[in-house]
């Protein structure tokens, strides 16, 4: 994932003000926003993405991948339908966004979608809008991808849960993970629904300077805050790993979550590395309920605290006699 940065003397005042409001410098703020825009565009198969910030009678835009800034004034504003999200095809764009200066410049665009970044009291976060050409994926799927991107951006910018959204605020223990994995495995087999699993490991080329317990805990807490769906679950898994359980998440959805986590955690890893003698890496491995036995081999040495639990029996398996 490219680490986008914006040069401070090229940024307009509204960008610098937002970075200050979030308690970040311009470079880390810009990196997080541009990563979120890239993720939103790629996940929804769009060509262009923009952060849109409403300011009285105008709208400010930071546009990806061009990384340019616009301030536009239009009667039909993009921000008008962003509270719950919107999806417009070509004809709906013409009716709803007629005369919008930015939209009017995009001659090859055939659809448009947007969603507000979840609000935190006292902190303006803006909205993400994507533009695409050709046949789009189903609108509900586009909205789900945008919801994930905006939720991750909100958590990364604020470090706090967004209002009105359920979210784990603490990293669970390995024992809790084993119990939850057993429950979700049985439920998955009964309902024939997918169950995604990720293993995040902090790696180091130097054994002497391996990740400390405090560093693993800090990254794990960040991962837990970034899981936005009810039922998603993160836990410490051994000395330097975090296991992530994603119920009802198929292979593609799990891979998308991994991509977003990887991008949003990257600045935190960079900040930790700035104070370390040897850098840490962040490795994410995607597996499934049928492959969770390979978690230890994926990045965590197997031992008493890291060996996966026995695979639970299917619901229709006959109980064994004792």
TrEMBL record:
<dbReference type="InterPro" id="IPR043128">
    <property type="entry name" value="Rev_trsase/Diguanyl_cyclase"/>
</dbReference>
<feature type="region of interest" description="Disordered">
    <location>
        <begin position="295"/>
        <end position="322"/>
    </location>
</feature>
<dbReference type="InterPro" id="IPR000160">
    <property type="entry name" value="GGDEF_dom"/>
</dbReference>
<protein>
    <submittedName>
        <fullName>Diguanylate cyclase</fullName>
    </submittedName>
</protein>
<dbReference type="InterPro" id="IPR029787">
    <property type="entry name" value="Nucleotide_cyclase"/>
</dbReference>
<dbReference type="Pfam" id="PF00990">
    <property type="entry name" value="GGDEF"/>
</dbReference>
<feature type="compositionally biased region" description="Low complexity">
    <location>
        <begin position="313"/>
        <end position="322"/>
    </location>
</feature>
<feature type="domain" description="GGDEF">
    <location>
        <begin position="170"/>
        <end position="272"/>
    </location>
</feature>
